[in-house]
Amino acid sequence: MGFFINLASLKTIVMYKIEVCLSPELFDKYTLENKIVVIVDILRATSIITTMFHNGLKKLIPVNSLKEANKYKNDGYLVAAERNGRKVDFADYGNSPFEFTTENLEGKTLVYSTTNGTNTINIAAKSESVLIASFLNLSSVAHYVVNQKKDVLILCSGWEGNFCIEDSLFAGALTEKLLTSKNFTTNCDSVILSLDLWNIAKIDINQYIKKIYQYNRLINLGMEEIVNYCFRIDMTEVLPVIEKYYLVNINK
C-alpha cells in the first residue's frame, strides 16, 4: 500500500509577530502596516479610560495640551485633566477612577488630557488600528487581538519619555496570553524582557509593584487606593479604540 498525503487537508498555521515599544520616544522605529497598536499607561491614563467606558462614557477626546483642553471647556465640554498627578484648576475631573461613575458619564462625551498617556494616544492615532489596554480589560484585549489575525505592537507610555516597569509588566501579561493562542511569535528583545518581568512579578504582584517608582510617587501623593485599583485584572470587557480623533467602546 502506497503512502498518500492529502495536501488539501493540511492547514497552514500563520504566525503573527508580537513587539513591545518601551517608550513613545522609540515609536518611529517600528513599522505599522497591517498591525494593531495596543496602548498602555497603567498609572494611570489607560486604566482611567477603561473605567470611563465601563461606566457608560460614549466618546472620549484625548488632547495633549492644557490650552486645548481649556478651549474645549470654554466650548461647553466636560473636561478631565491632570498634570503630575494633580487635577488642573479648570477641569471638571482629575485622574482618579473613582470620579468617573455611571451617574457622571452615561452617554456623555469627555475631553481628557494627562501628563503622558494622552500624548501617547495621539502619537499613535494615525496607525491602522489602535486599542486602549489596561490590566482591567486584559483578557478582553487579548481575545480581540487574537481574532484580528494581525501583528501587534504594544506601546508603553512610560514616564516623560523613559521606561517604566508597570507598562512593561502589562506587556508581559498580554504577551503571555497571546502566546498561548499558538498563533503568535516574537523575535523582539523588549517582548522577552517584558515577559520575564511579568513571570517574576505575577508570583506576588501586590508585593512586586511596591518597588515601582510611579507606585511610590503616587502613594506619596495619597493615592494608594487608586494605584491598587489599576492592578486589578479583568474587571471589565470594554474595548476602547480610536475612531478618527476620538475613542469609543466597540464591546458594548
What structural class is derived from the secondary structure elements? alpha/beta
How would you spell out the order of helices and strands? Answer: EEHEHEEHEHEHEHEHHHHEE
Q: Please give the radius of gyration in angstroms.
A: 19 Å
Number of domains: 1
Termini, distance in Å?
57 Å
Taking the sheet with the most strands, its summary is: 5 strands, parallel
Level-1 CATH class name: Alpha Beta
What is the name of the CATH superfamily?
ComB-like
What CATH architecture would you give?
Alpha-Beta Complex
Strand content: 15-25%
Query: What order do the strands of the largest sheet run in, or round the barrel if closed?
Result: 7-2-8-1-9
The percent of residues in helical segments reads: 25-40%
Strand runs, count: 11
Query: Total number of helical segments?
Result: 10
Poorly predicted spans:
none
Overall pLDDT level: 94
CATH topology: putative 2-phosphosulfolactate phosphatase
- Name the overall outline: globular
